[in-house]
Structure formats: C-alpha cells, structure tokens
Amino acid sequence: MDALTGLIDAQVVRGVLGARIAAGDDWGWWSAEQPGAAFHAVTSGTVWIAPEGADPLQLRAGDVLLLPSGRAHALGSDPEAIARTSPEHSDGYTLAADGTVRMGHGQAHTHILCAHYTHDPTASASFLTALPDTVLLRGQGDGGGLAETVRLVGRELTAPRPGSQVVLARLVDVLLVQALRDWLERAEDSPASPLHALRDPVVSTAMAMIDAQPGRAWTTTELARATDVSRATLARRFPAALGETPAAYLTRRRLDLSARRLRDTDDPLEQIAQDIGYTSVYAFSRAFRRERGVPPGRFRTTSRTVTAAPDDRRPGRPTTVRGGAVQGGAG
Q1: Over the stretch 90-105, which tens digit does the pLDDT of each residue have?
Q2: How far apart are the C-alpha atoms of 52 and 134, rounded to whole Å?
C-alpha cells in the first residue's frame, strides 16, 4: 500500500456522480455550498466558474477544478452570465431522459462532468482540507493520466452507450486520484499536512507502513530502519512534513479504524483493542476517550443513531431540483 492509497482508504473518500451538463450559449447556474469537495471536469467547449467571493475562472476542454471545501459557486457560459447568477437566480434548463442537464441556447458545445467527494465522518479529519480553497488543473497535451481520464469521460458524455452511467461513476474516483497526483507534481511548498507528506519519499513510505499494519507496535526506530534512514532523520522529517510525530500518526490511524468498527460492527471491545495494537481494553478506552471525548461504548451507541447515507454512486440515481438549481452531487 502506498501513502496516497492509505489516505483514501483510511478516510473512505467516495466520489459521487453529479450532473452531466450539455450547454449551448448564454446560461448561468448557481451551485450551493455542500459538504465535501466539489469537482468539475470540462471535456469540450469552455465554461466560466466563480467561487463565491472570488473572481471568475475560465476553464477549457481538459481542465478540471476542485473546490475542496465544497464552496458555493456560479457556472456560466461567459462573465456576463456569471454576473447575473446568484443563489436567487439560475437560468432554466431541461433534464433529458438520460439524466443530462441541458442548458443555454442552440446546439450544445460545452460538456461538463460534475461530482463531489465525501469522507467517512468517523475519520478524524479529511486530507482534502489541506488543499488550497481552489485547485485548478489545466489540461495537458502530453497525454498525462489526468488528461487521458478526462478524454475518456468526454467520450462517455458525448456518445453515451449502455452502462455509461456506471463507467462515469467509477471514473469519478479515478479523476480524484489523477487530480491529486497532478497537484502533487505541480504544487509548490505547502504547510505540513498528509498531502504535503506524500512529497517526501521517506515520510510517505513510513506512513504507508503504518497504514498497512496499524496494529503493529511501531517505534520511530523500527520505522527509520525500515525506510533506511537514521532515527534522528525520521524524527525530524516526519513532523516537518506531516505536522505530527510517527507515534501521533499511528495513534490517530488506529483510533480512526476503531471508530469505524465500533459504528459498523458488533465486535467486542477486547477484539478491537487487540486488533489495532492495544494491550488492554483499558489502554484502548483511555486513548479513545482522550482523542474523541467519549468512551468507546458511548461512541458506538451515538454513532449508530445517525442514519447512514445511501450509496450515491449507484447508477440511475435521480437528480433533484431545489430552489431553481439542480442538486444531488452536482458540485
């Protein structure tokens, strides 16, 4: 397991297929703020997007935009359309039988795939919050992974075939991984965070080892030996890149796993404690309460009172309309 896979797996980051827009001329659409990260991939034509309180950005075919905080934003055919679009006003649209949202006048020449990403609420934090408020990745002409995936999305949008909705739902997850890879390659120095740590090969290797075996009694010395550096080097580089020590990361990883098991299974506390590396229920309970503010038993009860969200990736999920704008994972 590599560190990026470990982060996505640990937080159960899930892509939710939203609207598929086919647009002509002169249109504007407001997308309300939502939990999770909003995502747009432009496969043909151009679109202007203005995050709330920020200047409009023009996206062309091959470009993708990620709004990690799910910030409200306007989409439109041009700056004039953006200027008239607000929470109180979005232009009309039609919803085709195949679920495509058709906007604007004349023949559709712009196609956009909209999605959003959520993470398991039992995770202590989302690594996506470490990203800038707006992540714009321009299309590449070198055939990179992101560009290839966007082109594949474009084929499914403009020439849908049986199973296209399933393909697009799966590609939403692929797009996030490709976008993160691309951002990591281009990003300049950033504050210590899980994503910043991925750029340090020593730290990312140590993180991957912890993710693969969170129940193992890892020490900084063992991790340093496994990554072929000195203990002093790892002890310095790990918090500089991640913002916490190896021991703190191991504890957080263990407690995130235990929180999910407490919510989703009836496994006894003794079994959970043993599996994630604690020598006793007492030690586990003390660590859990210190980090989560409640003992494991109470967390198990309260976490189950929250109704689990349906799997929005299922094919055929209808798009709903609220307040004049298309909702339901549109981004």
Answers
A1: 999 999 887 899 999 9
A2: 11
